[in-house]
Write a structure and sequence with these properties.
Elements lengths: L1 H38 L6 E3 L10 E3 L10 E2 L18 E4 L13 E5 L4 E3 L15 E5 L3 E2 L10 E3 L3 E5 L6 E5 L2 E4 L2 E13 L6 E10 L3 E10 L8 E11 L3 E4 L1 E4 L10 E3 L5 E8 L1
Parallel strand pairs: 1-2, 3-4
Antiparallel strand pairs: 4-5, 5-6, 7-10, 7-20, 8-19, 9-18, 11-12, 12-17, 13-16, 13-19, 13-20, 14-15, 14-18
Length: about 280
């Protein structure tokens, strides 16, 4: 009698243990099935916070108040994969370090890997670090009355006052003031835009020129001729563009000259501000 009671108690404990094991397996299976149903769409894409991930996405994350936090690592330079073991095309990380030597140095921010090196994912507002060329712009800041009134054909006059309104690092030029620009060696596209009128008698053809810088000290003269009505409605304008190869540091004055093909001379010419300007873009070294 005693033996049977002990045996029954033992069998009961064993059954309870087996039941608990079975329930754990069932619960685990249900959890896995639930996660699988939540994570995978029919196309195999993974969705987080969505039961229907985009069919073209391997991973579709949905949130209205959270972001994606990539791995934060300390890169050592753009040409080294470290701390990764190798360059992997498509890899994206957030770099936390300031390291390396120019031009392979890195600074904090997001980076992607093209399989051979790291490249910074830079905000477009910081164009200087992207190496995208931008023009330096110089603008006539006040009306110049009776412009070229004492200059004959082939003579020129400095624009003043001129305001530097744009100039970024890498432009290759510096502005010393007094309408004087210093070029460093390189290839430049220079555009001189003018807006004027010439209210003087019956003249109807205004001719101008710009002596663009060339080489280390030479110039190349390019003309522009504008036809217009006579009198108070003689407004006219134009642009003169030239590509200049500068071979050594060159100091150039912003000037506009009187050409030889017009019939307007003497007083009465007005050169207008803002719309009269010079744009200089460094194309290459």
């Amino acid at each position: 009698m005693y033996y049977n009671e002990v045996n029954i108690k033992h069998n009961f404990k064993e059954q309870r243990l087996n039941y608990k094991k079975m329930m754990k397996k069932i619960i685990l299976s249900m959890v896995v099935l639930s996660l699988s149903a939540r994570a995978f769409a029919q196309t195999g894409g993974i969705g987080i916070n969505t039961p229907n991930p985009n069919s073209n996405a391997a991973l579709d994350i949905v949130s209205t108040n959270k972001g994606l936090l990539p791995p934060r690592v300390a890169l050592t330079s753009t040409n080294s994969p470290s701390p990764l073991s190798a360059h992997v095309a498509g890899m994206i990380v957030y770099n936390t370090a300031t390291a390396g030597t120019s031009p392979n140095n890195v600074s904090p921010g997001p980076y992607y890997n093209d399989g051979t090196q790291w490249s910074s994912i830079v905000n477009v507002s910081t164009l200087n670090t992207l190496g995208i060329p931008r023009p330096a712009i110089y603008q006539l800041n006040s009306t110049m009355g009776n412009f070229l009134s004492t200059q004959g054909i082939g003579q020129k006059q400095i624009l003043a006052p001129v305001l530097e309104i744009a100039n970024s690092s890498g432009s290759g030029i510096t502005y010393a003031g007094a309408s004087q620009i210093t070029f460093t060696p390189g290839l430049y596209a220079i555009t001189f835009t003018y807006e004027a009128d010439h209210n003087n008698g019956s003249c109807s053809l205004s001719s101008y020129f710009v002596d663009f810088p060339v080489g280390s000290s030479g110039t190349q003269r390019v003309h522009s001729t504008a036809s217009h009505v006579s009198g108070g409605s003689s407004n006219h304008g134009g642009s003169i563009t030239f590509t200049a190869r500068i071979t050594s540091n060159y100091v150039w004055n912003i000037e506009l000259g009187r050409g030889q093909s017009g019939n307007c001379t003497g007083t009465g010419m007005t050169l207008y501000p803002l719309s009269t300007q010079v744009s200089i873009l460094r194309i290459s070294n």
